[in-house]
TrEMBL record:
Gene3D superfamilies tied to this protein: P-loop containing nucleotide triphosphate hydrolases
NCBIfam families named among the record's database cross-references: sufC
Name the record gives this protein: Fe-S cluster assembly ATP-binding protein
Source superkingdom: Bacteria
UniProt cross-references to Pfam families, sorted A to Z: ABC_tran (PF00005)
Cross-referenced PANTHER family: ABC TRANSPORTER I FAMILY MEMBER 6, CHLOROPLASTIC
Keyword Amino-acid biosynthesis in record: no
Keyword ATP-binding carried by entry: yes
Domain ABC transporter residue range list: 5-249
UniProt keywords, alphabetically: ATP-binding, Nucleotide-binding
Length: 252
């Protein structure tokens, strides 16, 4: 597999409003790519379209996941194939036990891949070990999914899901949003710990501090539904110093 994700000329709209206006993006296996840009530039829309959210209509271009036509896959098929979306604002699921939710998701993925399901005892051992690396107390597994969780706990719970599901491509939609310094560090280190030849990530963020920990292989800047510039981690530092205005003017 030469690339885990290849996006070419991707256009998408919600209703009659075009948002993505021709995205070109390539993510090789084992690389972490960051997507930055001002509010309203289409970053979250890109993540939703790649994950298969139904209310966004693809109006042009293509996206392939490995050798598969990503846009022809149902959302659950994308998840089973190894695509994971971490939400900016994870939803609460009252009455749904966190451990049961995580084990159900893991076993659904394992069934789709023809693997044996994992029993409750083995799962709890696995989840507690992964949670410990994210500074998560064991009682978070006993609580309802995200109910009463702080912002940092919700985001750590998302990273715990990633650690258990082991996606090939993780898409993080501003996972650092609303985190204090300590929680941001824990989340960033949790994602960085997943780095492997068979793990890639597309990280949507506004924060240089997150990228200082993750050290992305590439940084892409979006504006008005297009990627207007790509570079190495130094590009994020340039944005931190000077903002987006000069880049947007250059691309105009």
């Amino acid at each position: 597999m030469s690339h885990i994700l290849t996006v070419s000329g991707l256009k998408a709209a919600i209703g009659d409003t075009p948002i993505l206006r021709g995205i070109d993006l390539v993510v090789p296996p084992g690389e972490i790519h960051a997507v930055m840009g001002p509010n309203g530039s289409g970053k979250s829309t890109l993540s939703y379209v790649l994950a298969g959210r139904a209310d966004y209509e693809v109006t042009g271009g293509s996206a392939t996941y490995g050798e598969a036509d990503l846009l022809e896959m149902e959302p659950e098929a994308r998840a089973a194939a190894g695509i994971f979306l971490a939400f900016q604002a994870p939803v609460e699921l009252p009455g749904v036990n966190n451990a049961n939710f995580l084990r159900t998701a893991l076993n659904a993925q394992r069934r789709a891949r023809g693997q044996d399901e994992i029993d409750a005892v083995a799962f709890l051992k696995l989840a507690r070990e992964a949670g410990k690396r994210l500074s998560m107390p064991d009682d978070m597994l006993k609580r309802a999914v995200n109910v009463g969780f702080s912002g940092g706990e919700k985001k750590r719970n998302e990273v715990l899901q990633m650690a258990l599901l082991k996606p090939s491509l993780a898409i993080l939609d501003e996972t650092d949003s609303g985190l204090d310094v300590d929680a941001l560090r824990i989340v960033a280190e949790g994602v960085r710990a997943l780095r492997a030849p068979d793990f890639s990530a597309l990280v949507i963020t506004h924060h240089q501090r997150l990228l200082e920990i993750l050290v992305p292989d590439r940084v892409h800047v979006m504006s008005k539904g297009r990627i207007i510039r790509s570079g190495d981690a130094q590009l994020a530092r340039e944005i931190e110093r000077e903002g987006y205005s000069a880049l947007i003017q250059e691309a105009a």
